[in-house]
Amino acid sequence: xxxxxxxxxxxxxxxxxxxxxxxxxxxxxxxxxxxxxxxxxxxxxxxxxxxxxxxxxxxxxxxxxxxxxxxxxxxxxxxxxxxxxxxxxxxxxxxxxxxxxxxxxxxxxxxxxxxxxxxxxxxxxxxxxxxxxxxxxxxxxxxxxxxxxxxxxxxxxxxxxxxxxxxxxxxxxxxxxxxxxxxxxxxxxxxxxxxxxxxxxxxxxxxxxxxxxxxxxxxxxxxxxxxxxxxxxxxxxxxxxxxxxxxxxxxxxxxxxxxxxxxxxxxxxxxxxxxxxxxxxxxxxxxxxxxxxxxxxxxxxxxxxxxxxxxxxxxxxxxxxxxxxxxxxxxxxxxxxxxxxxxxxxxxxxxxxxxxxxxxxxxxxxxxxxxxxxxxxxxxxxxxxxxxxxxxxxxxxxxxxxxxxxxxxxxxxxxxxxxxxxxxxxxxxxxxxxxxxxxxxxxxxxxxxxxxxxxxxxxxxxxxxxxxxxxxxxxxxxxxxxxxxxxxxxxxxxxxxxxxxxxxxxxxxxxxxxxxxxxxxxxxxxxxxxxxxxxxxxxxxxxxxxxxxxxxxxxxxxxxxxxxxxxxxxxx
Length: 572
Fold this sequence. Notes:
The protein is an alpha+beta fold. It has three domains: 4-31; 34-276 and 549-571, Periplasmic binding protein-like II (D-Maltodextrin-Binding Protein, domain 2); 283-543, Dipeptide-binding Protein, domain 3 (Roll). Helices cover 27% and strands 19% of the residues. It contains 15 helices and 20 strands. The protein has helices at 4-31, 52-58, 115-126, 177-180, 192-196, 242-250, 265-272, 322-330, 334-342, 372-381, 410-425, 437-440, 471-474, 500-509, 515-531; strands at 32-36, 66-68, 74-76, 96-100, 141-148, 151-156, 204-210, 214-219, 233-237, 257-258, 277-292, 346-348, 394-395, 398-399, 401-407, 429-435, 458-463, 535-548, 551-552, 570-571. Strands 1, 7, 8, 9, 10, 11, 12, 15, 16, 17 and 18 form an eleven-stranded mixed beta sheet that branches. The longest helix is centred in the first third of the chain and has 28 residues, at 4-31. Mean pLDDT is 92; it is low at 16-28.
């Protein structure tokens, strides 16, 4: 026991064991990718949730036939080719689309992906007792059939110029029929094992799922990208808040990736200065804009307040005058708003629809340069001047006094203050008002404070759409979509802007299939909105995340799942 040589040998063995343990931990750390989604997923089956956190978590396991890349381009995924009219995959009457699953795609349990799995996924989501979160992906679908083991045919009840809803994008991924066969309709929520650990074709397999806390994944040995993924394990951790998530990547190095960093630009920049990671920004379709009320919001009008009259008799007393709204737009310095208030998460824009790139107009870019003197001259030329010396211009005896409302939010209140100052410089008086977000964006028909009722002259908020095809989104500006008492103030045309040329373009778009032709129509629609004073675009808002310098290959994707290509991420 007291032999010095024995004690030395024992200490040497213990030292070797310790070194081995440290090496094992180090190797495990190198093999593990740590991701923070501070809003943790509650299920791995987003068909039962619809939240972004569930969609992104599921992208490690479940996959669609085709998806969208970082630029919003549709790319084949579990197929070799996107079906089109030109290649015969879409019928001439636009009523069917046929997909061909590429050979050799396996689920993680080693069984082949077949057309029957696609058919089952449609049946699962459209079951009348299901309550599927992404039922809109199957709009107008009347049948999905397996023509053979690898061929899926989708039939629509109407001509579908854009038939890429079913099986395209993470929200329309394929479930394994064998696993979910007993989970149809009301039984869907009872299938806890399936919902927490779905079997998919993606790069990872769920090892452990703890709802609203953490998900641990291991590499799928049957993944269809040979030699990938590079990390053997992924730990997706929830909890905390955006600021603590950012700190874990950018300052302490505890995590490799942090999602949805909605925090002060100054704080985020300070964290990035630590040198441990990089802030990533990607831009989808979110635009902060000022809607211009085309109708009269005067309380004295009673039931006709802010209502679009069929005979056009209830227009706003001065905001429909081109000189007024053009001057208001010209006076705004969008670059200051974007740089000072949004930082990495915003760029100035002149478009209601700034993306995907194919739909982005360049015809309105003059708004990117503030022109206060030009705005004054425009009003002067139109005879809209201050006649009594009180600093406020008048149009036909009506002073240009504006009630400008938005939701309660520090960035929005700062934006309001800047815009109020610029408008005062051109002779427009502005009263600012902010409403609690839950009330402002609510649907209480009894409340006078909702953005849908629009009991103000102008109001500001952000809007966007999911996916990459803007047909439904741009159709919200139709005359028939104007909010009013007849539809419970839930119409999507918030500005009550009605333009027959625009309605004609909506109809034309619904009959146009070729992508380039659709893009040309959408650009015309965007320009009509902006160039006719329905709204004043301000900032193209981006999604913000952070990645550690220890990782290479990470890139955000706002058009699909944000971490869609996590299998390409590697240790630096």
